[in-house]
Amino acid sequence: MSFISEIQKFKSLSIVGLEKNTGKTVCLNYILERLPSSGYSVAVTSIGIDGESKDQVTGTQKPEIVLKEGTIFSTSEVFYARRRLLSELLEITNERSSLGRIVTARVLRRGKVLLSGPSSAQALKRWVKGVEKFSPNLTIVDGALSRLSSASPVVSESLILTTGAAYSVDMATLVRRTKFIVELVGLDRAKEEIRSAFDDKESGVWGLDDKGELIDFHLESSLTIDNSKEDITGRSRAVYVAGALTDRFLKMIADSRRVKEITLVVRDFTKIFVTEEAYRSFLKRGGCIKVLQKSRLIAVCVNPVSPRGIVLDSDKLCEKMYEAVKVPVYDIVKNRETI
Amino acid sequence: MLFRDYLEIPCGVRFMFDSLQLLSSCGRNRLLSSSLMVSKDEIEGAIFLLKGSYEKLYKDVTPQTSSELAALKHRLMCLREIEGTLQRLEKDVVLDDIDLFEIKYASLLAGYVRAGVENLGLEGVDIPNLTDVVKILDPDGMNIESFYVYDSYSKELGRIRAEIRPLQAPDMAGKQSDRLLELLEKERLLERDIREELSKKLKRRSPEIRSAINAMGDLDILLAKCLQVKTMGLCFATVSDDGITEYKGMFHPHIVEIYRSLAERYSSKAKEFTPIDISFGRESVTIIGANMGGKSVVLKMCALNQLLFQFGFGVAAKEGKIDIKEEIKVCIGDEQSETEGLSSFAGEVRAIERVLESVREGKCILALIDEPARTTNPIEGTALVAALLNILRDKNISAVMTTHYNVPGDFFRRLRVRGLKEGKMDYRLVPTSEGEIPHEAINVARSLGVDPQWLSEAEKILGEDN
Question: Are residues A109 and B146, on separate chains, in Cβ contact within 8 Å?
């Protein structure tokens, strides 16, 4: 039970799948089932979908989650009406989605429900804050593969990634690609003085020089580096990108003579939108990326079965994956009794 | 006309609305769709309520009053519009748990708000008692804001639920037994019957529920108005019995706020707003005076205060005695509308035409017209203004207009802005007589630092003419 007791150390958890059919729902159901029933309560929601019709077109129907007595959950009005459990409605929140307002309820008799909660990282953050009044021990956000932002440390302290044959059926590729994401999740926090210099900057690109002076490059984002009137790498020892970090920006730093002297800073790993190739070449030249906020990766859960029926060797996959990522790796379906 | 129709009139209603600290969308919508009060009783009642509440809330307050008020405001923030739910109820739709929750929540809230009003000793505020509604939705008397179809609604429901529980597989996997499916179906049908029964009972209560929500919305408006009286230093005006509107120390809250925020930005002392005294009966008054002498601001203040008064707000003056009007017509600012193909002149003439229309209908109106016919030549312009004043003569209306023209006639009153004195503008109004048109445009322009060559050329030309 080390997996479950590890989760209990945190107040909030996000579960994110790197691809559909990597077993995120299985993982969520497993965790919800195994967490203690008495004296411990959980609040759970799922990142909202943008629109029902669109979701049906792409076929990413939300699977039903099994919730047990005492669990607090938030979902849309439409899904609340379709619930297959007995629950007490606690609150109608001010968050809206295409499926109606988001409501919060407590399960009175176990059963199934479709979860579709707030749909942005900011709204999820408000949700976590909002359910505090029902004093859960743990809040869980079921994240979306397309929106890694739901895994942001802004939303939750800890994280579980699910990956598997659906992400790639070639074990080596699967391990390598997962390792890359794990590496980004594991980026260290910047030094205190750098963090406090950049922490309140919500947008733009900023620098910090040797004297500790803040430099505003007057850029809206890293996408508009062409508009910069100042040499970003010229005198900064740290450069902060408040929004998305792109390949181009990363290359620009990598190409600088001062690449080794500059710490590149982003808010958290969900802001990094670079290819593995660009990232590796940046590191090779001596570059260094740090984050302001970091969440703890509890485990990587693997699903060796691909939707097309290809099955990888579970034990071997777990072993190789562990060697690469150095955090606990579980195949929940195969080893559900032993972890 | 409704409050919302006056919002964009360029006299400051929008500013007053935006700075009103309304806590609920219900209050906001109630205010926007309230209509201009025109009966003496109604207005006096509203001002009496405002004054009484203001004194209770902000005069010689104890810490207890402040904390009670804060608690009451917190409750009002939770007020939600449930008109959709009530309409479904009235159309005999069987409500679902979300609708039933909304009604229970609002009814409990009404109870808390009622208690808050009582604690504060607010008189004249009546929130209907919805204890009976709460009872319908809270069969166990738990007094908490949550809802489901409680076991205690029916003995059978409790029994079925007790039987379901042990039959469920722990992980919900596998096939559910026939007995379980049968029980779940029974539960569903029972719940449906109970919701139907609840909806029927609640339908009878729907007028009370609606009036409680409206009353809470109105309370929200009242508290916001009281706070505005306090923060802006507004007064409680009285209804005039003799057709004369009279303001002492009138000011414009938006301009005061602009002065204040400018001073804050440049950390300097805020410019003082010169309070204005004015009075007018059911007659025409012209205001002449230098450019930048605040003539238009006087019109805006008259318009704003008239509207504030007739919508039950505090009035921006030291004292006010106000004649009730059926309509307030404001022609201020450039009415030019290129998109509608109107030139400045056409726009203006059309706006004045709307005033004349109301006059023809014999309505008691307040018309505030800024420099009529200013966009045409002074000869025709003067004639048009003189004719307008003539038409408005003895028509039971109050018209205040500004002008730069020397309009002949003795059947209207004339006021003049005192004007520049030792380089400083004195905005106060004084009575004046025919022929006295201030020639201060050049001085004002000079005080703005305009090219001296241009101005001395102009003075030379004026000298030649004389």
Answer: no
Cα separation, B361 vs B350, whole angstroms: 17
Cα separation, A241 vs A233, whole angstroms: 13
Helical packing angle, A276-284 and A247-254, nearest 10° = 10
pLDDT digits (tens, 9 = 90+) for B20-75: 999 999 999 999 999 999 999 999 999 999 999 999 999 988 999 999 999 999 99
Question: CA B307, CA B294: separation in Å to the nearest integer?
Answer: 20
A-chain residues near B148 (CB < 8 A): 86-89, 108
Who among A66, A81, A89 is closest to B172 (CB)?
A: A66
Q: Please give the ipTM for the structure prediction.
A: 0.79
Range(s) of the domain holding residue A136 = 2-185+295-330
**Alpha-carbon gap, residue A282 to A278, rounded angstroms:** 6
- Identify which of A80, A81, A89 has the shortest CB distance to residue B146: A89
| CB < 8 Å to A106, chain B | 146
Query: Residue B157 CB: number of other CB atoms within 10 A?
Result: 19
Same domain, A269 and A120: no
Please indicate, yes or no, whether residues A130 and A45 belong to a single structural domain of this protein: yes
Contacts of A33 in chain B (CB under 8 A): 170-171
Residue B414 and residue B433: Cα distance in Å, rounded? Answer: 6
Do A280 and A300 fall into the same domain? no
Query: Which domains does chain B possess?
Result: 3-232 (1.10.1420.10), 238-465 (3.40.50.300)
What Rg value do the Cα atoms of chain A yield, rounded?
Answer: 21
Question: A103: burial class by Cβ within 10 Å (0-12, 13-18, 19+)?
Answer: buried
* Domain count across chain A: 2
